[in-house]
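User: Show me sequence and structure for the first protein, then do the same for the second.

Assistant: Starting with the first protein.
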Amino acid sequence: MSTPEARIALVGHPNAGKTTLFNSITGQNQKVGNYSGVTVSKKTGTFRTPHGVQMELIDLPGCYSLSPNSPDEAVTRDILLGDLQGENAPDLVLCVLDATNLERHLSLLIQVMDLGYPVIAALNKIDLAEGQGLRIDPATLSEDLGIPVVALSASTQRGLTQLKQSIRTPFPPVAERRWKGSHEMESALSELEKTLTEKEFPRPAAHALQLLADQTYEISGITRPEIDSEDSISKARFAYIQQTTENSVRRPDEAALQLTDKIDSIALHPLWGWAVFISLMFAVFWTLFTFASIPMDAIEGIIGALGDWVGGMMAEGDLRSLIVDGIIGGVGSVVVFIPQIVLLFFFIALLESSGYMARAAFLMDKFMSKAGLSGKAFLPLLSGYACAIPGIMATRTIPSAKERLATILILPWTSCAARLPVYLILVPLFIPSATAQTLTLFGIYALGTITALLAARLLKPRLGPSEPPQFLLELPPYHKPDIAYVIRIVVDRALAFLKKAGTIILGISILLWFVNTYPKSDSEDPAVQQQQSFMGIAGQAIEPVVRPLGWDARMGTAMLTSFAAREVFVSSLAISYSVDEESEDADGLLRDRLADATHPDGRKIFTPIVILSLLVFYIYALQCLPTTAVVKRETGSWKWALGQLGGMTLFAYIAALLVFQIGSIF
């Protein structure tokens, strides 16, 4: 493949349609990685212009401003300023604007233009703007800004050819700055630029302006003038943007309510807004638990058939056991939950693409503020109900570093899909009514969520100095969801989950197979083999520790094995009670065995209070080593990852202990 002749940076607000445009331009020629030294994703692709020139397109993290409020925004700023080590500055910047909210998006464009790059503006969602009665003149806008402006719709690929034709070499000249600040600010800017030039600092004009425009930005050895330059620059830019939009935009009759306004009169209503939100969330989770079981059963069947097929071609022995039980069975225990994860991400992407998810975050902001969090934490916590791993990854969009860390630390208490098999085995043991079982499951999820929010309230003030609340949210207009975008999001996140969770689970599964297999037992009984294995020995060793919870050695063993993944708890109990998991109605048979199980003195083992103790432990315990590995990567510290693992395990133990001991008294 030939070397690209130029690097183009793609910038824009998170909901401007930047990713859709990136995919439309580059097609399948994409690579995903991480920027050096940070956990922010790096996405690049190549394409050829209509003139045959190969270009590299870099999809920079979405940002609202070059005065960053999040790690993602800081990466975008640093790349454009040339401050990020290992990243070359782009040759051209392609800035994506949302035509339905032009004035707000022009603010970022002006900041990018001020950095001294050749810039092309992609006026996206022009079809939606026209549907709202907005009439934008790209030619007038281009003349006022001094850069090429191309109207397009990335979702329908309208105007895409014209955009590619505008990307030609030589690139358009750098536009002159058309706004002016106060005399004091302009003088300070001139002096700063002169100082940076003398020090041979790269891009001196851009860095001088950034120093004055963002009071949090620092350059070693450079003193910022003691003037209120930030306010002066903001006012000058805003006045210029207002004049520009007045020249190029004709608006509909302001008295007429648009469709978005009519919907928002209900969706954002103090009462009806919550009714809509709760109904949508109930529908999402009802669908999740009702229909996901169909593909999950199919996947279980495929994994079982694959294990039988592979096992049938191999001689009896440890190698076959390793491959069939350790690798296929272990990785299969993760793969089986893909349908639930895919469904949840499908609904999340659908709500995002339609414009509703921003309203949900807006509604949740006031509620979550009581826990010290903002509405930005809502989406990661919601993702955690499918799996904590993608939920933790989604915290990258939270501006405050302290809030992001607090969200990561509490997120595993939102009950993920892997806990569901444990709940479905235990709850019917002492609650026969289907309606009561449903209410109990709701209570389990509510208990975990409420505890998580209370923990955030207590934890966040202890994570460092207080920060001013920063909840910047744009409410995009409602529109028909882009199904292609939804599918891409679902596929990308499902593959990311498989890659990050599956690889870790593979190693853990092999380790678990080893400790469950060795030392070998002379008995053919799987229950005896488990008791005499390293894991069984460990389970018996910790029996004095778990006995105050009402548990025996077999429960202790099942708890230890489930640190790889919570659903392994069920498999371990099935082995302990000699239940063939491939038999018809294996879950029902296991429940019968558990219900009939007794201590040597005849007392029932699985009494209601023991079951409650187990449920409470599994609500709170972080029994997912892949999650711990991802927390380490996202926080950059084993201290937080291991502290979370140990802290949640200790909390779960104490909670289960209190439930059993207090319950036994009554």
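Switching to the second protein now.
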Amino acid sequence: MRRLVERLWVRLLALALFFLFSAGAVLTLGMYRYVLQDGWFGEDFTFAETHMAESYVLDALNYIAQNLSWLEDPGNESLGSYAGDAFAYVVEDNETNTVYADTTGENSYFVTDFGVTPTIDGRERSFRLSGYVNLPVQPYGGCYREYYVFSEIFPLRRLFLPLGIVLTLLSLAALAVDIAGAVRLGKRGSLTVLGRLPFDGAVVGLYIGAVLVRVFLYDALGNTVREILGMLYIYEDRFHTVFMFWYAGLLALILANQLSAGAFLDRLLVLRAVKKVTPIALATGVTAVHLLLLLSALLPYSGFILSNILYDIIFAAFGYSTARILLLLAGFDVVVFLCYIRWNREQRRIRDASAALASGDLAYKVNEKQLHFVWRDLGRDLNSIGDGMALAVEERLRSERMKTELITNVSHDLKTPLTSIINYIELLKREDLPPETQREYLDVLDRQSAKLKKLTEDVIEASKAASGVMPVNAEILDVRELLEQSVGEYAERMKQAGVTPVIHAPEQETCILADGRLLGRVLDNFITNIIKYAQPGTRAYFDLSESAGETVVAVKNTSQAPLDMPADELMERFVRGDSSRSTEGSGLGLSIARSLTELMGGRMRLTLDGDLFKAELIFPAAAPMPKEPEPPLPAESERTPTTAEA
């Protein structure tokens, strides 16, 4: 369900339902409010008691009131017939109580009356006009449409309130689904289409759009449609309410997405504009504001439209007074002057930070909390530059130190076998050596020359692996099979070193895309290190696992010598686990292993925890190669007889 609300079609459907349900809620609750005021919940409520009937009758009575000259002919009772058969009226003289006209019948129901005082024959006379409707109203009877709406809606009057509440809850639920999707996307750093809008721009733009749509849409409707909407109590104010409801919902979606993504302030147009303010732009703005304020004060009644607008604003806020205008200008100048002082102070902080960095003080930091707008960005950049330069210097010093140690270690590793070879050659030059001693010296020369050869080969291989010129023949490999094979080859030597290998691997095939020869060399380096440096009487663990689309080969053992150096330093060239360098080896094993692993598209990670040494090889998992079906065995009659059978 949580992932479902992120789907685009779900959010669009929820938004459409929000629009639909909210419009229905506003209209039904507006209807309930109207019929409640109109008294529709009375037991014997009739059409004659509605505002629709009153409006219809008042229009007809006003027409009669404007044309009372027909009173010279009291028998003329057809004046109000334009209103249709549904309308009836009575005209009575208030002075003589004489009824001049009466068109009511048995089915006429009183609606409203009012008095008028027209001037007839040069004399004011007082009349009482009473209006009626004739029920039931027939088609083409004058107000049949209103009567039909009433007769259809009146039985449903008690449904308006519960229906409005249900539609309100449904609209809020649909909006909640949309907001939940916007929040989840925002937490993942994704902005929706609405979320990309700046909030302050959306506040103004959506409001203007809502007002324009409401006005133009309502005005674009035909008279007949507007009359029908009016009979349904859907007037312009309710259109406005509906659009404001949608306006608030869209703003809530934008705000939820931007706040969850942490992009609210970054999207604001006001802050973007302020960040680009320069002293020249500030001075230009101040001059323009002064000019407009002076024009509004000096020319309040001129044809200068903008001046009039500013004058109206100032008059509404302060009342029109030249003294107040000047006081406003003085206050504005004070604010601008204070802003200018602060601007210069922050500029000076940036200048001091730049000078400190230029002089080599990389530890100097500018306080970002004391900076604002564009200066804060500059201060943050200067602090980042200082950190980067300090890190580069530290890395350079570390590189120089490692280079010095590398030269020392290489010199030591090369000098030892060379010195031994030179010394034994000098001994062999003696002519009085017995044959047994000569053979012993030759064995020493053989071992030392082999050691020197191995060191030279390791240096060349490390250089090739680091430079990436070593060819890689990638193929689908079963890591479990390769791991078991490598451990098996060194099982006897590990036993002699007092280390017991333990393999944890899944039963099924675990495949990666790598070079079998190079990966075998990496595993050989790990196992060789275990034989050299592991504590006798302990176990070495070889774990194979898959997680999140990656295959991990982990090698763990307990070190015999204390590991008093960082893991990254242990992977440098010519660095050994024992600082005395009393064991055999070149110190290139882990460096070569890391270079070969990266060359095959994997990565190597070392972890040191006390005496625990842990190395991990991480490769992207690959699907096993499909096995070819075995060919069927030939039939007995098709078999070729062997030599023995022949």
